[in-house]
Amino acid sequence: MLVAEKTIFYKAVGSEIEVFNQINQLQLPLLLKGPTGSGKSRFIEFMANELNKKLITVSCHEETSATDLIGRFIIKGAETVWIDGPLSIAVKNGHILYLDEVAEARPDVIVAIHSLTDHRRELFIDKLGETIKAHPDFLLVASFNPGYQKGFKELKPSTRQRFVALSFDYPNPKAETEILIKETGISAEIAQKLVAIGAKIRNLTELGLTETVSTRLLVDAAKLINNGLPKRLAVHVAVVEPLTDERETINALKDLCDLMI
């Protein structure tokens, strides 16, 4: 469970802040679509901070169930006690609930949030036999990586159409350079070289990488360089190695990066 409290840097690349403010006013559910490391989670943290709202983040995986979100009974001493899950807490208290990679979760999670994504804005707790009306400030946000999930775990059209959706992609070179400088304090010269490396690898579609270079990886490389690690080594461990385990591909990418920084 994460609570947004500190000042957070976020570089807007479109109208996402304006859209989010409208969604917040109208109490609409939001779906963020985009590749790994493109700023979806950072955006939500930033908006929660801007709106002074508590943010509860659930990183979904194949074992995430409705019970994990809603709550469960536990034995405490000689009695059985109900413990609210993150979804119930957010619904009751008007927090933002962020379901990161919602398509990874079990199908019963989607069923559980259905009545929160339409005009009802209510949560049914089956084990208690109770229906809770969402607090006026409650906001449901989910993220989804269409490129990664394609052909594996898709969100059904009936589910997607319950959300307003925003698409995220990697920033343009100028914006990405600014992000690296602001996030790490790296020099503009090195930031530009890192951004150029990212752009080059993203265009190498023939490598067949499952995921490509995210802004997050470039930020990690910049942090390592700024902390004193040699530039090429920083790029090797922060950018190249996380992308693949294929030795030939790793060597080819290392050679490419060495020429660029």
Automatic annotation (TrEMBL):
It comes from the Bacteria. Keywords: ATP-binding, Nucleotide-binding. SUPFAM superfamilies: P-loop containing nucleoside triphosphate hydrolases. Residues 29-163 form the ATPase dynein-related AAA domain. Transmembrane segments: none annotated. Residues 176-259 form the CbbQ/NirQ/NorQ C-terminal domain. The keyword ATP-binding applies. InterPro entries: ATPase_dyneun-rel_AAA, CbbQ/NirQ/NorQ/GpvN, CbbQ_C, P-loop_NTPase. Belongs to the CbbQ/NirQ/NorQ/GpvN family. PANTHER family: DENITRIFICATION REGULATORY PROTEIN NIRQ (PTHR42759:SF7), MOXR FAMILY PROTEIN (PTHR42759). This is CbbQ/NirQ/NorQ/GpvN family protein. It comes from Flavobacterium ardleyense.
